[in-house]
Specification:
The protein is an alpha/beta fold. It is 53% helix and 12% strand.
Amino acid sequence: MGKAVKIIDIDESGECFVLDEKALEAIFSKVPVDMNVSIVSVVGAFRTGKSFLLDFFLRYLRNTNQRPDLDLEKKPDNSWMTADGNSLEGNNNRIKSKPLDSDDEIIEVKKKLEGFSWKHGTERCTTGIWIWDEYFIRIIPDTNEKVAVFLLDTQGMYDSKTGQHLTASIFGLGTLLSSYTVYNLVFQIQEDHLQHLALFSEYGRVATNEANKHESEEEEQTHMHPFQKLEFLVRDFRNLDLEDDPEDNDLDDLHKQMDTYLQDVLSQKFQKDLKEVRDQIELCYEDVSCFCLPYPGEDVAEKKGYDGSINKVRKHFLYLLGDYVRRVFGERLAVKQIQGQKVTAMQLFEFVKVYCALFKESKIFPEAMTLFRATQEANIAGAIARASAFYKKEMDKVAGPGAQYMKEDRLWGYHNAAVETAIKEFHNATKLGTKEANSEAEKRLRTQLEEKYKDYKESNRLRDPMAFVAPYIVPLMIAFAAWLCRYVLETVCPRRSYACLDFADFFGSLYLVILSFLMFHLVSTMYDVKSSFTSLIAKKAVGLKQD
């Protein structure tokens, strides 16, 4: 059973982010190195039910299969909602002994309740950014690609303890790290909600322009959205035309009502500043959608002692929630991309480190060009890591643990082929950097691969049976010849022929000297082999940790 882990904390000043690199690396390292990831995050104001929603996401992912439900015309099957019992995880309303003010208390509760923490009241429940440490494999409908899905919970915005800079930064990090951002709102989409999206408009413009600069003149320039999917999730929406019985509702009609509402909001472009905000949203996000959920009922929203019972939630809410969740993890699910390039978990880890460093060092929101250049650097670092891992995977097939000895020229041929393929992987993944930066990075990559080849070469040498025996063949032959001469001379020499006996003693001494030398050399060689093997194992362990 997984748990929520805080990966990004806020320092005592309340202005800077602190990344827990070890925790995030431990989580992302669980994902196969060649599997891409999808990050679904929920951002929005505090006390609006973000964590409550994420616990429903968890239930759906735990209790449904990998293949998405694409038959959206049929009524949603909501049996997954109660598959783990009637009480939803993460409910802190059950903990009444003392308020959960400290992070240690919150962490303990999160572990105990096996969900994202939520509670009734006006005090914030989540600080920093949390991730569920268990990934779920889902299939992207369009490509049938298996991806590792992670859920991200963010600190609520607009509370009395969070400054404007930190609020913008929380939203920024959530958007930068996610492939699917759920912007959780209450009642309606307001102008100030759109203004927060506009903070990224300049970054979007710079990122798009810089990416186009590096395209070849022969290539057709296409607009690349810097961010992926954005969904306005409007909670407690009062304007849906609902039937008395939830299952009597026409889902297509309800979706049309939601689409019409979004279009009405985004089409309000009469004033210049309003028009610019909406134009930049369209520029930055490749897909903007809206889903509306009705009021969940008084028992959930207004009673302090709500115990997480799902049967107390209003049926209209559950019905539409079931339809919404199957769409999020079905037709709308997307692989995480950065400037059009799909990323694996460990590649994303490099980006997270870069982004957090930027927000940590800035007292204001990072400048667009600074953010873009940091993305370039992280893109190159991720491409090097991916190419290096690809080289290792290819070489392990022929020269890894358990492989047989092969001649060095043959191993060199495999090495060259793996290097060229790894270089192609590198160039396929580096679309942001300048030609000079990519060329320098390629040199670094080639140097790394040559160092890795030395380890494979040494490992292959240690497997060569003749490499151990060959140095002893000639000395053993001489020793045998000396022993044979001594035996013959002692047999045929007359008893009083001292010269003949002296020759026999000479060959006997030669035989003993050679054997003593060989024994000394054998012990020394075994010690060297042990040292080489230990050193090789240590290098591989360090290499695996870096990969």
